[in-house]
């Protein structure tokens, strides 16, 4: 038995993916045997949250403290160096497989009352591969409790072309980004990307630009998808954010100290920005019996 539990492989055409029992994480994704995301071994903890699902909040909550529906809550601090609660409560939990076919797998997790989060959710994720369309992921949550619950979700894949980010071109179809402080907590509000180093609305070489910011005001295509595209002139990999994801966290891994530093681009679809449990920005108030979902995907090219 591996540290990340059972491994669920799916495939379609040139695509293969591996999803883990631990956290229902996306451990690997390839096209024609070339990695599209940074992967890791089944006995290795996901480095820097690689491939993990983030719920019931993505990103960070300042000092782990928030108020909701007239009550104050304090979450365990799991980013001790910055004194934040980070990336939710389910990324290391065991998820149960609900269905597994050649080209798709779905997993579920029941989140019961937790210190600082006294709510009950039924979570579901489905990963599906298509020979022409790549990977599609649908994340869903249903409030299975008796109280209105604060909720948000995200995912944490790292797009890669197997070469340094400095040599790649980046496209991010977003018109605004959120300023954050040294603890990655939003400060100063939204900024237009125009005229800043964070403007990637037209593809351009990333070079040494360091990014660790949430983007929004996403520009969507006719199918309602916003895009992040990494290319090197020969190959490309793209992440799209569909319905339910008005935010994209872009992260160039500059604070990673191992050999993977700046070899993968964090492209994280999110329902809300960092610290939304405190600010209320795009926070979902999920009523008992209600369900919410969001869809995103990754494709070669």
Automatic annotation (TrEMBL):
It comes from the Bacteria. Gene3D superfamilies: 2.70.98.10. It holds the Pfam family Aldose_epim. SUPFAM superfamilies: Galactose mutarotase-like (SSF74650). This is Aldose 1-epimerase family protein.
């Amino acid at each position: 038995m591996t540290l990340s539990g059972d491994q669920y492989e799916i495939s379609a055409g040139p695509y293969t993916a591996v999803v883990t029992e631990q956290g229902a994480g996306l451990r690997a994704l390839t096209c024609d045997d070339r990695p599209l995301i940074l992967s890791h071994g089944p006995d290795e903890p996901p480095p820097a949250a690689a491939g993990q699902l983030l719920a019931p909040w993505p990103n960070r909550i300042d000092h782990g403290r928030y108020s909701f529906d007239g009550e104050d809550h304090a979450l365990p601090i799991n980013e001790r160096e910055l004194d934040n609660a980070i990336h939710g409560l389910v990324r290391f939990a065991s998820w149960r497989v609900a269905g597994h076919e050649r080209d798709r797998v779905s997993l579920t997790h029941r989140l019961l009352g937790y210190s600082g989060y006294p709510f009950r959710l039924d979570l579901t994720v489905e990963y599906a591969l298509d020979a022409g369309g790549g990977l599609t992921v649908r994340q869903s949550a249903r409030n299975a409790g008796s109280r209105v619950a604060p909720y948000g979700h995200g995912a944490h894949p790292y797009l890669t072309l197997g070469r340094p980010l400095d040599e790649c071109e980046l496209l991010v179809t977003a018109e605004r980004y959120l300023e954050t402080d040294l603890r990655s907590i939003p400060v100063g509000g939204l900024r237009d990307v125009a005229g800043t180093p964070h403007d990637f609305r037209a593809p351009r070489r990333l070079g040494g630009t360091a990014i660790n910011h949430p983007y929004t005001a996403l520009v969507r295509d006719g199918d309602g998808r916003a895009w992040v595209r990494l290319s090197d002139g020969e190959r490309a990999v793209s992440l799209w954010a569909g319905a339910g994801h008005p935010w994209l966290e872009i992260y160039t891994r500059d604070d990673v100290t191992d050999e993977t530093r700046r070899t993968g681009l964090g492209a994280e679809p999110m329902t809300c920005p960092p610290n939304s449990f405190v600010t209320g920005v795009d926070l979902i108030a999920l009523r008992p019996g209600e369900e919410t979902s969001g869809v995103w995907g990754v494709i070669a090219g």
